[in-house]
UniProtKB/TrEMBL annotation:
The gene is LOC113727716. Single-stranded DNA-dependent ATP-dependent helicase. Pfam families: Ku, Ku_C, Ku_N, Ku_PK_bind. GO terms for biological process: DNA recombination; double-strand break repair via nonhomologous end joining; telomere maintenance. This is ATP-dependent DNA helicase 2 subunit KU80.
Amino acid sequence: MARNKEALVLVLDVGPTMHAILPQIEKVCSMLIEKKLIYSKSDEVGVVLFGTEATENELTKEVGGYEHITVLRHIKVVDGDLLQALQNLPRESVDGDFLDAIVVGMDMLIKKFGPTNKGKKRLCLITNALHPIKDPYEGTKEDQVSTIASQMMAQGMKMDCVIARLTQNMEANKRIMEENDLLLRVFSNKSSTKTVYVESPTKLLGALRTRNISPVTIYRGDLELSPKLNIKVWVYKKTSEEKFPTLKRYSNKAPPTDKFATHEVKVDYEYKSIEDPTRVVPPEQRIKGYRYGPQVVPISSAELEAVKFKPDKSVKLLGFANASNIMRHYYMKDVNIFIAEPGNAKAILAVSALARAMKEMMKVAIVRCVWRQGQGNVVVGVLTPNVSDNENIPDSFCFNVLPFAEDVREFQFPSFSNLPSSMQPNQQQQEAADRLVRMLDLALLGKEEILQPDFTPNPILERFYRYLELKSKDKDAAVPPLDETLKKITEPDPEILFQNKSVIEDFRRCFELKENPKLKKSTRRLLKEKPSGSDDEREALGNGSDAQPMDAIEYPSKIKTEKIGDANPVQDFEAMMSRRDSPEWVSKAIQYMKDKVFELVENSCEGDSYQKALECLTALRKGCILEQEPKQFNDFILHLYKFCQQKDLKSFCEYLASHGITLISKTEAADSEVTEDEAKTFIVKSEQGF
């Protein structure tokens, strides 16, 4: 068996109490096989059904017993026939014995592979465990389970148990359920068995590990606490985004009779000279260049390699910080887990002591990481203690990458605390919102939380795998609708919404939406024309909860900027537009921005400042719409086009046309004299020339 090749036996309960959830079991097993056909096409899978009227397995023929167990498929490499069989599981009428079925599955693996390939053999049991197992000939049921668990360990087998109890009457089977749960715990304690209980179809889809990913360390070495104190650690990925399978280019040009054709498409690139398009430029005559102002600075591969920072492989502790100082939004990329070197008792003890001390003091560690020798970058991250509740699992650390200053994005928004009391929720509104939150709580009283990440599959990926399977059978297959079970991941539960309809209606009534009519003039312009403290001023500002401080929403900045600079002209323009100490700042900001656009266009060198001019012009257009000053923008844009025609700057006109910059029409601003059709034809006219 290959290094990552897995042998799996599915042990499925098809008895009468499983009929309601067999459609979901068919889906999850089909998804498992679909993923294996994509990622692990050499894996081998067998299927055992229990609860069948018929009996068809080798142990029955050899030693007797093991009744109502049928081997649906012997262990073979995955193929389309297996997928078809799992999509049409039989509905049987006999209560099965899951312990006998496990033994049959183990017998299949032992006969196929013997004691070899340890760790690559897996059983997967799916049942509701509601029916009693037979009493053994000798000893107790616990003794029997312990013997089977020991044999599993000796053979290097693992087992996943998915106990699906969705709609069954728990009270009627309480004694049997408790006995079976006890036996399953014996498996978990004495073998490599993972048991998951599911109460919803959604969790069932995510409970079965459908893709086997071998753990691979990204770092093995020292966690350096000081020059004289190191701890041996291994680092694994804890979470990593699952992406779509890579689509490959495929050629059908190979002869149909060629059985060894790979249908591979190879891509070659040729670089040709601008002066002589027929001449191919060889690699030794090509060099990379980087823009630096108006010029391009050439840098050879050797120079680029020499300038790279090449630190030695290491993980070094920089210090400790309060856990409260590391904000959740600082976390970047995937999550890694630091564990002590397996088998190293001193390292395990040191990691445990450090993790427990950090948790007690509410501290986190800041570390500098270079995962491999010659790595071109340094990562700074935070280690969060992960103290284990299970005595068999050692303590560890979770690692998250932290941003550098260049990675942080600062966006200023007005604080809700600065809004007047009339624009903050009253007690009735707050209580309605509280009831809405409680109503949509994912962890309802007495029930487990739904949509847990460990058991929630990606609906987009699952739908893709399903469509790929349909496409393999029929090239003209239509894209299927989203499965109802997967839809529950992307939409609120309709049953919960129906049961709490009154809560939703109360919330809607407390926050009634009203149409905000277009104002002929902005609030600032209206105040400019009315004396301070007049009735008209109060009317313009509005009364009660309908008041809308437009500019506080449109321009969040409160910096008192008095001119538009070169570094951040758009930000300066928005800051000036948001000033409230004088109504003159709007007209000043518009004029300053016009001047800045002219300056950027006139002083451009081969269009190097066109992008910045476009950003300024876009901000100016938005500001003129918000302040109901369309004429100022429309007159300016016409003047700008004529200016570019005179100064032989037609390239800028073409640049604006390609980005759809046009006049402000009546539909955008009521004061505009330009119709929508005129605004649309403006681009065409500008391209043809005035």
